[in-house]
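Record 1 of the preview.
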Amino acid sequence: MAEKVRKTTTFLWEGKDQMGRISSGEMKSFSIALAKAELRKQGINPTRVRKKGISVGQVGGKKIKPMDIALFTRQLATMTKAGVPMIQALDIAAEGLDNLALKNLIIHIRNDIAGGTTICETLRKYPKYFDDLYCNLVNAGEQSGALETLLDRIATYKEKTEALKAKIKKAMNYPIAVIIIALIVSAILLVKVVPQFQEVFAGFGAELPAFTQMVVNLSELLQEYYLVVIIGIIVAGYVIRKVLETSEAARNRFERLLLKLPVVGQIIEKSSIARFARTLSTTFAAGVPLVDALDSVAGASGNVVYREASISIKEGISTGQQLHFAMRNTNVFPSMSVQMVAIGEESGALDEMLSKVATLYEDEVDNMVDSLTSLMEPLIMAVLGVLVGGLIIAMYLPIFQLGSVV
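->
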């Protein structure tokens, strides 16, 4: 029998050379023990040897969410403020994670930085998780020597932004839940309950009321084509989602339509203003020029109306206009937010005033979402009551008419 071929494994190592200098790298070997022995032959005292992780995205585990990145940033900010070196901070952050995908990402970042790449350049390799705004702020922190301060601001920004997104999703989920529950209950009644009454009606020998006949016809149609209906709903949902993902024009029309919806539109409008103010406050406080900061603001606005408004404001500022004047010319910002920005410009505390604007509108969004939640509970009962009650009336109408004839 042929001898089994042993496969080598790539190991990442850290250690100290004969001069006491810390070094690191990677090497191929058959085992950790053999790798350590080889390093000692080269005059390096290994302090840590481990298998190299597979490439980002290939590891199993939970999906990396934006809130995971926010928590990771907060950990880095806390540890760097405490004086922990970046490499060690990344090691600590990775070791405490159960999410293998995020752990793998942090290990890759740590290895790149240990190899001499700047933090900003390393993060730019993973645009799916670290956008331009994030990388630009980290770069500003590295250049100014205030990385721990900028990481703290980034962490606060990410936490506030993700909390705001969660509130918007909560507000949107309630109307969707009402529609789905109503459709499911109606479908169950039409498929399971109406046919039972239909057998009773067959023995009447009389013409059914128009409302009852309509419900019976709908029940027969659903019983015969329920698979087609289910598949049609799934396909329609998939197509709409793909169109919104791939077509910018369709996505823009959808975002404009959302702003016109009652209650939900106001929540989205106020959240967009809050994100505008929060992003601008964070970038401006980091020393990013206002014109350049507005590029990041446009990308983080979350709605085409405020994205276009940010671009318009940038053009106005480029021609010498003040921020509050350029904001007023867009006709999409409430007068209160414009006046607060004007006060911030006059007092020289624009970043603080923008932060207050963001907090104000975030609180309004929070209150509106809570109000919507309270409103939707009786609304769900009302919608279900109308649907169920309507179907029951349709089924009992022939019985009532039969009783009146007798």
